[in-house]
Amino acid sequence: MHTRVQIASIVFALLVFAAVFELVRRRYLRERYAILWLGAALVLLVLAVWKNLLTTVSKAIGIYYPPNAFFVIAFAFLLLLLLHFSAVVSRLADETRVLAQRLALQEEHSRQQPADARADETPVAGGDPEPLAGGDPEPLASGDREPGQLAARGWSPRRSSG
Known about the structure:
mainly alpha; 8 helices; 0% strand; elongated
């Protein structure tokens, strides 16, 4: 590998490292995804620094010019990363749809209750009705994600909006 190409490859890998660390520091990138990017940058850095490894890998995959193998490997990783992110986005879209449906069902259920029944509602035994009348509800625990659990704790969207 030519020296200029090797230096450019090393600089590229180091820039990826720096960019990932900065994105994590500013909380634009979650740690679980940062590990993927740092792993990719590490592989690219090792391939850029260790000339014989890149030559061996390029010959093994049938690429004559080792720097081209470097960028083919980087491109293949990016394609796999895009596939992973597409799967994550698809899962999040499904979860959003389910949550919107649950919210619509909960709002429909609250509309069907008579107004006087909502006024007579009291929180679960041992709960204090005063904080619910004008303030925000207490934070939800990790298991309190079902709409029925919110109603069982005495929370109503109409009561906490004031």
